[in-house]
Design a protein that fits this description.
Blueprint: E1 19-21, E2 27-29, E3 38-43, H1 50-61, H2 63-68, E4 71-77, H3 81-90, E5 96-99, H4 104-109, E6 122-126, E7 132-137, H5 144-156
Parallel strand pairs: 3-4, 4-5
Antiparallel strand pairs: 1-2, 3-6, 6-7
Family: Belongs to the peroxiredoxin family. BCP/PrxQ subfamily.
Protein name: thioredoxin-dependent peroxiredoxin
GO molecular function, one term: thioredoxin peroxidase activity
Length: about 160
C-alpha cells in the first residue's frame, strides 16, 4: 500500500485544479480564482456534526475578515449538494460549500484522517498564483483552522 505522504499536497506545491458543484448546483473550479484572490480551501468530515458545524460557523463569523485580506473560503466534504444546501441555509454560511462525492479531490490533496475512519480536517491556504502557502491539519481543533488561515493570509500581505 502506498503511503499517503506520497500524494499529499504540501507548502510550495501548485494546488491541483478541480471542478466541483456548489451548494447551489453551480460548477466551481479552483482556477476561477487564479490571479484574483487567495483561497482558503478547507476539507471537513461531515455537515451537521458538532466539530464541522463549529468550524463552519467560525469561518462564517470571520468571513468579512477573509474578504478584507483578499481571500475566498471554500469548504469541501463528500456531502451531497442537497445536504450542503440545508447546512448552508441552517447556519447562514456566506461562503461556498463544494460537494466532493466519492472524495476524489480530497484524495488528490491527501487530506486524509490520521485516524483512518473519518475524513480528515485539513485547511490549505492557496495564494493568487495558485501556490499552497500553508497547510494545517487538526481533526479535533476545528476552530483553530480559522486562526491559522488568517495568520498566514495576513503575513503574506
Amino acid at each position: 500500500m502506498a503511503s499517503s505522504t506520497e500524494t499529499k499536497v504540501q507548502v510550495g506545491d501548485e494546488a491541483p485544479d478541480f471542478t466541483l458543484p456548489t451548494q447551489d448546483g453551480k460548477q466551481v473550479s479552483l482556477k476561477d480564482y487564479r490571479g484574483q484572490k487567495s483561497v482558503v480551501l478547507y476539507f471537513y468530515p461531515k455537515d451537521e456534526t458538532p466539530g464541522c458545524t463549529a468550524e463552519a460557523c467560525a469561518f462564517r463569523d470571520s468571513y468579512e475578515v477573509f474578504k478584507d485580506v483578499g481571500a475566498e473560503v471554500l469548504g469541501v466534504s463528500s456531502d451531497s449538494v442537497e445536504e450542503h444546501q440545508k447546512f448552508s441555509a441552517r447556519h447562514r454560511l456566506p461562503f461556498i460549500l463544494l460537494s466532493d462525492k466519492g472524495g476524489a479531490v480530497r484524495k488528490r490533496y491527501g487530506a486524509v484522517s490520521a485516524f483512518g475512519l473519518i475524513p480528515g480536517r485539513v485547511t490549505y491556504i492557496i495564494d493568487k498564483e495558485g501556490i499552497v502557502r500553508h497547510v494545517f491539519s487538526s481533526q479535533l481543533a476545528a476552530e483553530r483552522h480559522i486562526d491559522e488561515a488568517l495568520k498566514t493570509l495576513r503575513a503574506a500581505r
